[in-house]
Design a protein that fits this description.
single chain, about 80 residues, mainly beta, Folate-binding fold, 4-stranded antiparallel sheet, two-stranded antiparallel ribbon, 6 strands
Amino acid sequence: MAATLTCPICGKRNGYEFRYGGVDKGPRPDEEVLSSATWCDYVHMNKCVAGIQKEWWFHRDGCGAWFTTYRDTTTNLEVEKPEAN
C-alpha cells in the first residue's frame, strides 16, 4: 500500500496522486545579492535528515494545489503535529 497524504483541499489521498516538491527550506535567498553558488546550495544541498521534516507537495492528479506537510522520513508517514526538539 502506498503512503497517504492529506491535501488541504481534497483531504486524505493515495500518495501516488502527488509529486514531491522538496524540503521546505524557508525563505528564498535575497535576489539582489544572490550568487550562483548560493542559489545552487539553496536548490540542491539538502540535509537528508532521518526523522521529521517539512516538505512541499503538489497534488498533480487532483486539485493542483501546492502545500506543505510534515513527514517522518524513517517511516514515510505523514505527521500531523511534529514533536518539539
